[in-house]
């Protein structure tokens, strides 16, 4: 997992920037789709890294959801 994506997600989570996290996740998903469509090259390692990035981003989104739910109580 990339330390850079962890720091980016941490920053967006800290400032509660949900839209930027969702945009980042969508961008990573598009990259994964594009890489999966490439023939003749082995992109498995890149796809795995992107999938890891998506997991980190989704974790940040869940963190925002849980902190919003806690404020409602």
What is the C-alpha radius of gyration, as a whole number of Å?
Answer: 14 Å
Which band does the percent of strand residues land in? under 5%
- Secondary-structure element order, as H and E? HHH
Tell me how many strands there are. Answer: 0
Averaging pLDDT over every residue, what do you get?
Answer: 93
Apparent shape: elongated
Number of domains: 1
- Structural class by sheet pairing and helices: mainly alpha
Distance between the termini: 34 Å
**Helical segment count:** 3
Binned, the helix content reads: over 70%
**Main sheet record:** none
Low-confidence stretches: none
Structural summary, described in words:
This protein has helices spanning 3-14, 18-36, 44-72. The protein has one domain (3-65). It has 73 residues and is mainly alpha-helical. The radius of gyration is 14 Å and the shape is elongated. The mean pLDDT is 93.
Topology record:
Elements: H1 3-14, H2 18-36, H3 44-72
Helix pairs in contact: 1-3, 2-3
Which keywords apply here?
82% helix; elongated; 3 helices; mainly alpha; 73 residues
Short structural description:
By secondary structure, the chain is mainly α. The protein contains three helices and no strands.
């Amino acid at each position: 997992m990339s330390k850079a994506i962890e720091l980016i997600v941490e920053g967006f989570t800290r400032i509660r920037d949900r839209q930027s996290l969702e945009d980042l996740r969508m961008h990573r998903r598009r990259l994964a789709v594009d890489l999966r469509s490439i023939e003749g090259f082995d992109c498995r390692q890149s796809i795995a890294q992107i999938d890891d990035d998506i997991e980190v981003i989704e974790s940040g989104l869940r963190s925002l959801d849980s902190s919003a739910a806690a404020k409602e109580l």
